[in-house]
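Re: your question from the hallway

Yes, I did run it. Sequences:
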Amino acid sequence: MNLGPHAIFIIASYVVVVVVVTALIGWIAADYAAQQRILRNLEQRGVTRRSQRAKGDAP
Amino acid sequence: MAVIDLANPTRFLTLVNRVLPWLIGATALVFAYGLYRVAGAPDDYQQGATVKIMYLHVPGAWLGMMGWGVMTVAALGTLVWRHPLADVAGKAAAPIGAGFTFICLATGMLWGRPMWGTYWVWDARLTSVLVLFLLYLGMLALYWTAEDPNRSARAAAILALVGAVNIPIIKFSVDWWNTLHQPASVVRMGGAAIDASILVPLLIMALAFTLLFFTLHFAAMRNEILRRRVRSMRMMQAREVPV
Amino acid sequence: MNPFLALIGRDMRLAIRVGGGALMGALFYFTVVAMTPFAIGPDLNLLARIGPAILWLGALLASLLALDRLFATDHEDGSLDLLMMGTMPLELAVAAKAIAHWLTTALPLIVITPVLGLMLNVEMSAMGWVALTLLAGTPALTFIGLIGAALAVTLRRGGLLLAVLVLPLTVPVLIFGVAAANAAIIGPAPFGPPFTILCALSLASLVLGPVAAAAALRQGLE
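Structure:
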């Protein structure tokens, strides 16, 4: 594949898109891992949500 | 008053968990096929190989605008129907839409340098996208500065609606301003003049980017629901401590 | 007395009294316009060419200046709650506050515009036209800013957030305001089309602004 005289700009565009998309994916994945960790931590310490407790005892 | 209705989001979470792997797979497949078609697509007789930037630039512009559309629908959901997922959807769409708008701007600049001889011209389309990007940044700033998610959701919904009313007006005025100052653009691309050998890969790439948008959006909505769950659990915990 | 007029009167009295910002907008405008030649040089031909643009930018920034206090003071002393509970529709009350803000901030600025034009080497006869475009366009700035002010008070933030939210929305007003002013001074484009569009923008924001601001207050402060 011959990209012609302006290959650097074409490659740079694709690199920009890869960087932006990777940043978005990375941010979302890291955020998901962080929220999961906090939730597990809270559940381990016995903190429950109102919806879960309503099934057990009266509020 | 329920702080956050958790029943509906829980059902949504199971749905996301089931659908997301398929979405990721479909996005990867369509991207692979789209990039394969882009590699095989012919060069433009006028612009040479730089037309390959278009396969990123145009979907970026479409999805940047669609992102605001998603936020507008979500804003109606927040203000009119008070749907508990609507402001989650709106908040999750803002950074993703901003990201795609940035892709459109950055690739537009990189396309402009070989074609126009300069990174930036105050071309009507680039300028409109720039204003859209500024609106996105304002929306992100609003989310960053607000502490209470309910309060910021309402404010963001109003801003999304005001922006949706204003974006066509801004587009119109920028077009008018541009014709006043710059009679002709260097590169003209007629909508119908695109050959199928270029149009088909473009449409496949647009589909790939759209799938990517919704994959990211669903995943970001899941994060936002979990974040609110953490918040409500912490508030429950704080309430229980003195007892 | 008509509550709408009473509210305009109250806000104007508050703005004119000590501590109010009535003339501060005009003073800021004067300072910004006077600073510009230091940035771009004292070339009178250049100043004459970009004079209308400087005046419009100054007006845009000056109209933003006092906006973040528009609802904040009323929110702090509780009178905003009274307005929301009152019999007058909140949209009207909010519009009254915007009109009072325009009368105390934008109007003095328009009055001193001809004097500033002399410093920028814009002809006296043309200054009337620039002032006319400001008169037609600044209501749009105030009423768009009104939305930002309402959002800022519900978030308990002001200042820079307000500017970041509001400025992109004022792009059309700036474009047509400067275009109309330039058409009047330099030509050759006709003055009519941009000026009528500018008036249309003002009228449209006269409707959109109060409705959106009232919605923001109702949603945000309930």
